Each structure stands twice: as structure tokens, then as C-alpha cells.
Amino acid sequence: MDTEKENSGWTDEELEASVDGYLDIQTRYPNDQKFNKSLEHRRLQSGVLAGRNTKSIDYRLQNITALFEDLGLKTISSYKPKVNLGSGITARLIKILESKGLITLDSGTPSTQEKSSLRNVQRAKQRDFVSEPEGVQIPQQIVRTTKTYARISKVKDWILFNAKGVCEGCGQPGPFEMNGEPYLEVHHVKHLSDNGTDFKTNTVALCPNCHRRCHHSDDREAFTAWLYDNVGRLEKE
Ligand SMILES: [Zn+2]
Ligand SMILES: [Zn+2]
Fold it and tell me: Ranges for the HNH nuclease domain (predicted)?
């Protein structure tokens, strides 16, 4: 069978059905017990995957194992990780996992606007503005690509639940409510961009001020050291 052709031809519905099938097997065999594969594949073929043979379903579920391994999610051991995913398949699978709340996509930093606005403040100080700037009615739009990390939602959920609405940086409740809960953000103490892990031992719940302080302030290193000293759960990486 031509697997490359197989990969490119898969619809989002088929990919989602594969993910659902994978999760469904895990629900019914929570301890990774042995099960009858062909029976499971036939079950999948009775739905959206009717047009796929058992071999290509097997192949797709192996792809899912490879991706789950990368993301730190639980895998099914009888589907050995197969990483030869077709182009775009990984991104589409990640989108599906995000829509199911299994992972959270995160740029790893609250915003990078500060750096340029800081430069602007310095420039403004140097210049003597005689008149107030008018501004622009419709600012230009620029599309930028940002590196995005797929994180396990369970860790984020646990960190927020454990914080009970109180910032682990300043001890104050989140500054406003979102969905009825004090708003806090989840920060990776060793940044994801520095290969920090997505474990509880590297993650804190912070108010937006403390979060930005961690990323952008002059005392960010001292503040991070303070977090290590004062949040018992944290381990240096
Ligand atoms: Zn705070
Ligand atoms: Zn952060």
C-alpha cells in the first residue's frame, strides 16, 4: 500500500475518528491490557473510517502513539510509535487534541509587545514632542509566525486548581474573574523556549503582573529565584 498517498488523503473527520477510537480503547482498557485489534478496527470501520482497511487504521493509530509520546500523554503499548506522519498530519492531529481539551497551545511568553513599546518610550524621551501624535485609524496588519508549544491540559488544570485563585508570586487573588474564577496564568519557571518541562515541578500559577515580571522585568532573575525558594513544589531544571 502506498502510505504517502494514504496520509494525504485523510480527512479531518477521519483523523478525529482515529483519535476518538484511540481514546475509546484507552477508556475500555485503562490498564493497557491486551485486546483484540481486528475487533477494534472493525468497530472503527463501522463509522467514519468505513473506507479504510485495517492496516491503514493500524498505521494511523501508531502515528497517534508517536505523537502522544512526544506530548507526554498516555499511550497504548500494542500500537508501536510510528513517526512517519504525512505532511500536515501532526498539526491537524494537534488541533484535534486541542479541541478535545487534551492539550493547550501556548506561545511560552505572555507578550512580546513590551520590548518594542519600551524602545518607543526611550525614543519618545529622546525626542521633544511638540504636538500630540494623531495615531492611525486602521493600523497595518502584520502576520507573524510564533513558535507554539503543545502542553498537557491536565498539568495546567491542576496548577490552577491547586492555586485556588491566588497568585503564587505575590499572594494576591487574580485581578478579575474569568468564567467565575479569579484569573491567573500558568508560567513555566524554566521557560518552554529554554527546553523547560511541562511538569508540575516547573509550573506556577501567576497573576498577569507577576507573569510579565517573570518574562520582562529587570529583576526577573531574582524574582524567579524567589519562586524557587518559596514555592515548595518547584524543582530547578
Ligand atoms: Zn502576582
Ligand atoms: Zn510564562
Answer: 154-212
pLDDT digits (tens, 9 = 90+) for 91-109: 888 889 888 888 877 777 7
Answer yes or no: are the C-beta atoms of 213 and 220 closer than 8 Å: yes
ipTM: 0.94
The DSSP call for residue 10 is: -
Instruction: Give the ligand with the smallest distance to the CA of 110.
Output: 2
**Ligand 2 centre and the CA of 206: distance in Å?**
9
Please provide residue 153's backbone torsions phi and psi, each rounded to the nearest 5 degrees.
Answer: -60, -30
Q: Largest alpha-carbon pair distance within the chain?
A: 79
The CA distance from 205 to 208, in Å, is 10
Closest listed ligand to the CA of 188: 2
b/e code 195-225 from CB counts within 10 Å (16+ = b): ebbbeeebbbbbbbebbbbbbbeeeeeeebe
